[in-house]
Design a protein that fits this description.
By secondary structure, the protein is of the alpha/beta class. Helix content is 40%, strand content 20%. It has two domains: 222 residues, Alpha-Beta Complex (Spore Coat Polysaccharide Biosynthesis Protein SpsA, Chain A), CATH 3.90.550.10; 205 residues, Vaccinia Virus protein VP39 (Rossmann fold, 3-Layer(aba) Sandwich). Strand 1, helix 1 and strand 2 form a beta-alpha-beta unit. The two termini are 36 Å apart.
């Protein structure tokens, strides 16, 4: 099935018949196979009878509330795409054709009142409050969407299958977008003109909606500032906080200067950093699927895999980068063996991690942990020092070339695999590799 139309309703009998009839005409004109999924919040008028007369599936929202209605509809939808809109005719049905044409541009298409070309014909006070909420949330959550609260959307069903939605009411609209963007999906907005509902009374209350939204915004802010967000690393490069921006750019300068012109490069544990985006002949690898999804949107080759079992043949890379990765992983020799294995003789290894022997890092980390306790401090499970890391790498046969520091805290070292080196690491059985992966 091409498209499922999910309609949360409550006493919309006066509008629903016209809406379903017009939607049927448009979808048939587009040549689409479709279904109507009407999710009822306990109507006392003829809403259910009207829906049944137009061939819609009728479901009871569970749990109660707008968010529950969406979850119910999403769970029942069978289409490759899922369309949501209000049943009160404030969302012009004919606009579906524009949204359908834009489906290849992004994973989520929003009918937007606030991009250039969009208009909202509502009261001045309601429009001003809506714009203010959207502005605050856009800046607070770093999501490049101007109309986060529009419920007129077209989703690829894959997006909805990937998300855990926890909202209760209309704040779920922002939650879906923030979580989808954090998972590496992309969003586009199409200019839309909004008119007030055709008949009946609106069930949305802007003040109540705003209060619910601000309650959930803090949890979403924590997500956006966690390592799990697909664009976490890239955002740091452009951060408004001078220390974070300095740190990211200093790391970028060192690593890209060393890797420049090195040939085919593997950035293991690349995240969404500007480093992998700057390299001209590189493959990114990360265990977080959101990060690889984000990179593939940018046309950067990327694979999801474990650094303990790199999915590449022996001696294929001219350069291997492991920046801010090993401290997040178990302290096992196979991690370094895999870097040696995929690196060609004469190839370059660039490896970076906090140096826990320096007082600078031992001071910075606790302060960072106090300021952002939900961030990645507790994910540093392996604490390396320069002496220990040097001994490990040189014991394998790597030749040290250069060492650099950021703020005397983050250690970055450049090593060379000898030209005469051949694969000498005893590789573990495939079953053990799979277990480690």
């Amino acid at each position: 099935m091409d498209i499922s139309v999910v309609l949360p309703v409550l006493n919309e009998g006066g509008n629903l018949g016209s809406l379903l009839q017009r939607l049927s005409s448009i979808l048939e004109h587009l040549g689409l196979s479709y279904e109507f999924v009407v999710v009822d919040g306990g109507s006392h008028d003829n809403t259910r009878q009207v829906a049944a007369a137009h061939g819609a599936r009728i479901l009871d929202e569970d749990p109660p509330g707008y968010a529950g209605a969406l979850r119910t509809g999403f769970g029942a939808a069978q289409g490759e795409y899922v369309l949501t809109l209000d049943a009160d005719l404030s969302h012009e049905p004919a606009f579906v054709a524009k949204m359908w044409r834009a489906r290849h541009l992004a994973d989520i298409v929003i009918a937007s009142r606030y991009v250039r070309g969009g208009v909202a014909y509502t009261s001045v006070g309601r429009r001003a409050l809506s714009r203010l909420l959207n502005l605050v949330l856009r800046r607070m959550l770093s999501v490049p969407v101007r109309d986060l609260s529009s419920g007129y959307r077209l989703y690829r069903r894959e997006v909805l299958e990937q998300l855990q939605i926890g909202g209760r009411n209309f704040e779920v609209l922002e939650e879906i977008l923030v979580k989808a963007y954090a998972a590496g999906f992309n969003i586009t907005e199409v200019p839309f003109t909004y008119f007030p509902r055709h008949r009946g009374v609106s069930h949305a209350r802007v003040i109540s909606f705003g209060m619910d939204l601000m309650k959930s915004a803090f949890q979403l802010w924590k997500l956006r500032n966690s390592l799990e967000s697909a664009d976490y690393d890239a955002r740091g490069f452009y951060s408004l906080l001078p220390p974070q921006r300095y740190w990211q750019r200093a790391r970028h300068h060192i690593v890209t200067s060393w890797a420049r012109g090195a040939g085919l490069t593997l950035d293991s544990g690349c995240g969404s950093s500007i480093i992998i985006q700057s390299l001209n002949n590189a493959i990114g690898l990360d265990y977080n699927f959101a990060k690889t999804r984000y990179l593939r949107r940018l046309q950067i080759p990327a694979v999801r895999a474990s650094a303990f079992a790199l999915p590449f043949k022996d001696e294929v890379f001219d350069c291997v980068i492991s920046s801010q990765v090993i401290e997040h992983l178990r302290r096992e020799q196979v991690l370094f063996d895999e870097m040696w294995r995929v690196l060609r003789p004469g190839g370059l290894l660039i490896i970076g991690t906090p140096d826990y022997a320096t007082w600078q890092w031992r001071t910075i980390e606790p302060i960072y942990g106090m300021l952002m306790p939900w961030a990645y401090r507790d994910e540093h499970i392996s604490h390396y020092t320069r002496a220990e890391l040097s001994e490990r790498l040189e014991g394998m046969g790597f030749v040290h070339e250069e060492t650099a520091y950021i703020a005397h805290a983050e250690l970055i070292m450049r090593y060379r695999k000898p030209q005469t080196a051949r694969l000498s690491v005893e590789r573990p059985p495939l079953a053990l590799e799979a277990k480690r992966a």
